[in-house]
Amino acid sequence: MLTNSPVSAILPTTDLGRARDFYQNKLGLTATAVPFDDPLMFEAGNKTVLVVYHRPEGTKAEHTVAGFMVTNIEDQIAELKTKGVVFEDYDMPGFNHINHVMDYGNVKSAWFKDPDGNILAINQL
To answer: What is the DSSP letter of 39?
Structure first.
């Protein structure tokens, strides 16, 4: 039923202006013109959308809440680091990080947080 329906990630923020700056200027997403200030909507690849809404308490998730598919994870890490994005290295038994990349064989992943602590990933298949 939903096979051909794009999926959107919906994330909380305590500061919409700070979130707009991060997603637009650091991650390079395009803000979608909408007739309201909350939530913010950003266009990503393949008709996907990232929605960011104001929540006074902020995030409560301690897991990855959204992931971006990339073709060259090392290049993406280098580019995002030049924009001030800080990568996280998580300790997972049996896996090692090399330059923030966890290599699962055919899949590589790296994680970072937005200004509200939402955990985001970039993944290469």
So the answer is: S
For the chain, the structural domain boundaries read 8-56+65-124
pLDDT in 10s for each residue of the chain, 125 residues: 778 878 899 999 999 999 999 999 999 999 998 888 899 999 998 889 999 999 998 888 899 999 999 999 999 999 999 999 999 998 777 777 889 999 888 899 999 999 999 999 999 99
Fold that domain 8-56+65-124 belongs to in CATH = 2,3-Dihydroxybiphenyl 1,2-Dioxygenase; domain 1 (3.10.180)
Pair 99, 89: CB distance under 8 Å: no
* Residue 86, SS3 per DSSP: coil
Long-range contacts at 92-99 (CB < 8 A, ≥ 24 apart): 99/74
What's the DSSP call for residue 22?
I
Phi, psi angle pair for 111, to nearest 5°: -125, 150
Q: For residue 10, which amino acid is it?
A: I
